[in-house]
From TrEMBL, chains A, B:
Taxonomic source organism: Cellulomonas humilata
Superkingdom: Bacteria
Subcellular location(s) of the protein: Cell envelope
Cofactor: heme b
EC number: 1.11.1.-
Protein name as annotated: Deferrochelatase
A Pfam family hit: Dyp_perox_N
Keywords assigned: Heme, Iron, Lyase, Metal-binding, Oxidoreductase, Peroxidase, Signal
Start and end residues of each Dyp-type peroxidase C-terminal domain: 243-428
A Gene Ontology term for the protein's cellular component: cell envelope
Annotated region (Disordered), positions in chain: 113-132
Length: 457, 457
């Protein structure tokens, strides 16, 4: 291992050597490594694009974790983990390993050398290999902590959970147990978890490869609790992105908070110092991730008239314009009346109930994906929307809105929530804080930073 | 509806009008329709590529169905259907509807007008809408018939199945009930089916949209029996394509039959007139589709040494070269010996047992995909290879090889076959045989062709 170098010490940042990750000779290494950690975005994929040639990478480090305001990539693989260890030290070690691997993978490197670089040939490769010839595909990895990490899981009889890691007094106030909502039919095997990792990329093989290698590195400390594959991002997080469609065939996320709206991000997404007491200062600059697996009654929807569909949503199906007129980005005019004095946008329509004017001005940064998980025993599609939102505080930014929607929104007739998770998402590792060896691997010492480190300070 | 016109009558083929499919105004119609049916390939995706701008379409018509030698797209959604009707006429009507929809979808049109073009607004849209803004993404739709379509499903006590459609005497000899293989642990809910539709595209939303709309058109006649999503094609079907990797991290399909190998296709893929008797003449120019859901023991594999992995496969993990030396496309030298006189490529290695020299010269056209279907209750990945192969006759081109592999190939220790299907794939609809109205919709009369029509002649 070469001596540590700080990428900030070298003008233009370091050039990572491919040599040390080759192991087995040319042609096998990951591509697109000509970018230093902490450098500005090097190349990217402003629109959804999967190509063998794209070398898009996003920096792993920054004030906030990547994968939140990053222009939404087109594919998702999200995994929730439960810890099998009860050792705080092992938890920290796991987060250190994950940091190292995530810093490498997001820059287009392998999880580790293919074939032990200097060790015996008779050991498993450090990387599972299936991403070897692929581009980084804009991979981001975003880490979060579930409520059970802090206070364990209550027993069925209501007995309190166990504080396994001495973290109970660091529980952020917003990391509540979500209440039951009207449309909930939650499967515990698709809900909650101690840890979450959101992998987004423009190639599903890249996202799956990342989770697989992180899961492998967790062996002995944590196991996967549930996972969700998603495709066809259902929100834009940048004004440069086209508004996508959900499986109801409607444009979704027109009013989403976008990366370019710095003030709105500060108001609605990032946890500010003013929100927290001393115990949860570690979360400042972070966010909360709300994950909801929303199954759509596709077959029923498909037999609904166009008029009914548009009235339920409150927008036209083609253009996505509010029924009060205009084009997609025209503000809805909820007061406008049609024949007989009824509002053009129905009072129980989705667009009205989800609009900031119905929610004390609250806006969400949504980052959801469509999912299709095969068919149920009746041949019906098990498909829908995997809702992901990053919010400043779920008590103000999700619970009131979902309470209203689940009880009043007529669209709910076609929706069932089948999975749920809420996670505190720590801030990022500051630019330049990761010290890299010349093989691109962060050099970890007792002092080196890792994702979520603030929680353990 | 305009009067039928034969696209062959017009130089350069017709330009399909977008107008009639718009229904709701501009911006909603499918894109990439500037291509006539039966025209040569217009634009395409020679390498895996998903972009919002690609307008790649493949012709729906031709001597063979598309989706067999078509350069393998990067995503798959395959659905097996069971018929709920017992009416031969309804079966034919279903195939006619599917032909119309497939001819439209593969050319980038919607399944039907969004919002009834001339009908009442208070009817469901003819297309579900979620592909409205997307490119055709190289969509192909390939149709096949299962053994149960001809002879029904035998009862658990061995009683013969029912010939519901008067097709028993048209059963092709090769459409056998596959024998039990050593590594089989088949789930009936993931196996067989009366009909199959393979949707391949470079965007999963396009493939899922196609199956969804075909499924919708089958309402009352057929229901989905099982489906499989796949990504990261694990074979190349064109010499222009890079060899992809499976979830073992190895290159897969190096020796695949490629579209460019016309003689090999004739020898190994297409059903020749010399193979069939009068009852199955309808299958000449068609093929057989073998589908096998092969779960990989990922976690166990990941703990196996590199040496062991390479010995099991018989190739290097990095380059994919045979262990006898050379590069990926070097022919394996099975006679070459290493230290102690043992063959460099083990006698029970996958590459040796799957090689044509071990299989009477047989080669397959493989078209498989990786799959990841979440995790089992132990947190292990439910992932692997969805094996698809098109062959001239499964009795010579699949059963002997699989019998040998499942009993001798040491790689089988890491594999379980969990689903299986065998389907007869009829030939294509000849170029120019589909008569199109000026909205791009095939004009169906009692005489107009449909997929599988030969079976009913």
């Amino acid at each position: 291992m070469a001596s540590p170098t700080d990428p900030r010490d070298e003008p233009g940042g370091p050039r990572l050597s491919r040599r040390a990750v080759l192991g087995l000779g040319g042609g096998l290494a990951a591509v697109g490594v000509a970018a230093g950690f902490g450098a500005g975005r090097v190349t990217g994929a402003p629109t959804a694009a999967v190509t063998d040639d794209a070398e898009g990478t996003y920096p792993f480090t920054g004030a906030h974790q990547a994968g939140i305001v990053t222009p939404a990539q087109d594919r998702l693989y999200l995994a929730a983990f439960d810890l099998t260890t009860t050792s705080r030290d092992e938890l920290v070690e796991l987060l250190r390993r994950w940091t190292t691997i995530a810093a490498r993978l997001t820059q287009g490197l392998s999880a580790g050398p293919f074939g032990p670089a200097s060790g015996p040939y008779d050991a498993p490769p450090d990387d599972t290999g299936e991403a070897a010839d692929l581009s980084p595909a804009g991979l981001t990895l975003t880490f979060g902590f579930g409520r059970s990490l802090f206070v364990g899981t209550p027993g069925p009889d209501g007995t309190p959970g166990e504080d396994r890691f001495g973290l109970a007094d660091r529980l952020p106030e917003g990391l509540v147990a979500l209440p039951h909502f009207a449309a909930d039919d939650l499967d515990p095997a698709r809900s909650d978890g101690d840890l979450v990792v959101q992998a987004c990329a423009d190639d599903p093989q890249i996202a799956v490869h990342a989770i697989r290698n992180l899961s492998r590195a967790a062996f002995g400390s944590a196991t996967i609790r549930w996972t969700q594959l998603g495709y066809g991002r259902t929100s834009s997080t940048s004004t440069a992105q086209r508004t996508p469609r959900n499986l109801f065939g409607f444009k979704d996320g027109t009013a989403n908070v976008k990366a370019e709206e710095t003030d709105a991000l500060a108001e609605h997404v990032w946890v500010p110092a003013s929100d927290v007491d001393a115990s949860s200062e570690w979360l400042v600059g972070g966010s909360y991730l709300v994950a909801r697996r929303i199954r759509m009654r596709i077959e029923t929807w498909d037999r609904t008239s166009l008029r009914e569909q548009e009235n339920l949503v409150g927008r036209t199906k083609g253009e996505g314009a509010p029924l009060s007129g205009g084009t997609e980005f025209t503000e809805p005019d909820f007061a406008q009346e049609g024949r007989g004095g009824a509002p053009l946008i129905a009072v129980d329509s989705h667009v009205r109930l989800a609009h900031p004017t119905s929610n004390d001005g609250v806006r969400l940064l949504r980052r959801g994906y469509n999912f299709t998980d095969g068919n149920d025993t009746l041949g019906r599609l098990d498909a829908g929307l995997f809702f992901l939102a990053f919010v400043r505080d779920p008590r103000t930014h999700f619970i009131p809105m979902q309470t209203r929607l689940s009880s009043q929104d007529t669209l709910m007739e076609y929706l069932t929530h089948t999975g749920s998770g809420l996670f505190a998402v720590p801030p990022g590792i500051p630019e330049g804080a990761l010290v890299l060896g010349d093989d691109g691997t962060p050099v970890t010492t007792d002092d080196s930073p890792f994702v979520g480190q603030q929680l353990f300070a």
